[in-house]
Amino acid sequence: MQHESGPGGRELTVARRRIVGGLDVGTTKVCTCIGEVTDDGSVHIIGVGVSPSQGLRRGVVVDLDAAARAIHESVAAAEQMAGTPVESVYVGVSGPHITSLNSSGVIAVVGAKGEIGPEDTQRVLQAARAVKLSQDREILHVLPREFIVDGYKGIREPVGMTGVRLEAVVHIVTGAASHTQNLVKAVQRAGVGVSELVLPSLAAAEAVLEPADKEMGVALVDIGGGTTDVAVFTEGRVAHTAVLPVSAHHVTNDIAVGWQIPLAQAEEIKVQYGCALREVAAVRQAPAPRLSANRLSLADIVVPRIEELLQLVQSEIHRATGGEVLPGGVVLTGGGALMEGMLQAAQQYLGVPVRLGVPLASGGLADVVNSPLYSTAVGLMQYGCQQVEVPVPSANGAAWGRLVERVKQWLSELL
Ligand SMILES: Nc1ncnc2c1ncn2[C@@H]1O[C@H](COP(=O)(O)OP(=O)(O)OP(=O)(O)O)[C@@H](O)[C@H]1O
Ligand SMILES: [Mg+2]
Fold first, then answer.
1. In a domain, 221, yes or no
2. Residue 281 is part of which domain span?
């Protein structure tokens, strides 16, 4: 809400629309999702725009102008559908240059009577992010995993507790500054501001996981056209993130090389007949006997690459859990998750329950984005909605109470 002076100096309350945009600059497609935050805090998707990706290789901008054109086309399409412009967007940044590490920091509590205040939390997070990075790298996220108060582990929200020594264990995500800056430049060249750069797997997790999944322990695996992005959650927090260099496009490439056909034809064959598991390929009826035989030989090309990918995923999960089973299993999303037999292959290989992750959005155009292809764009928009400014509290106690509740909820989701 915004207060303006009306006739006779009376104050009028003018509703100001809270519009938030998510921009997923993928290697295959550029997708924009525009949402509107309603007064009760829910989000309605009001615009979606998709354009073929250009000027990107494995998540990294290699041609600024081409990338800017693709971004402009996608944002413009979403704005047209939404009937409103979007000033700035939350942008996903991925690629092999993204790395992550765990760190910790410790401080002495200075608050009155040893009570930990928000400034102590800020200080300990600052201490935890003080890691040695080479000059060409920048920090994208500092994600608290747990706080430790006087040696007592597993604390989620230390504010208000009493203690002398406060420690924070965090997961830090970094990117190559040149690559992130080139992405920002491409978005700005397309005429849009950048609100924040966000790791796509965290955004996709926002869209497809329930808080209960994260609490149980789950791995989100986004199989895209350029990279496969992994985010592992345990006890409600991010335990580990990784960007893997094997993606769905490698399968296309293998088919093109194996059968000596153009990439476009290989892509078409992969999407139509590709199968991640030999058993599934063997039992599926194909339109002609010759094609049925080809389907098995196609699986001979596809399956080893999928197994390589699943092996990489498994070692990242192992890194996060130290070999413990993830009770929430694995959620596959991104275009690569749509390949026939993919869920079964992952379940067999990883030995945990596997499901397909589609955006859990409701309201507005939620049905338009009801596919794993849109998880990241929807998640970026939802992530942005959590950051938007809350209405100014009036003297009215009810409104203030609602505000306090929402801030509390955001904090508990963030920490
Ligand atoms: N039905 C399908 N069967 C098999 N593969 C599919 C299917 N639909 C899409 N794909 C594959 O998914 C990939 C694209 O996925 P997605 O749109 O999630 O990638 P992206 O977000 O553009 O890439 P990235 O996230 O790596 O930058 C392509 O390789 C495409 O062939
Ligand atoms: Mg993607």
1. no
2. 231-356
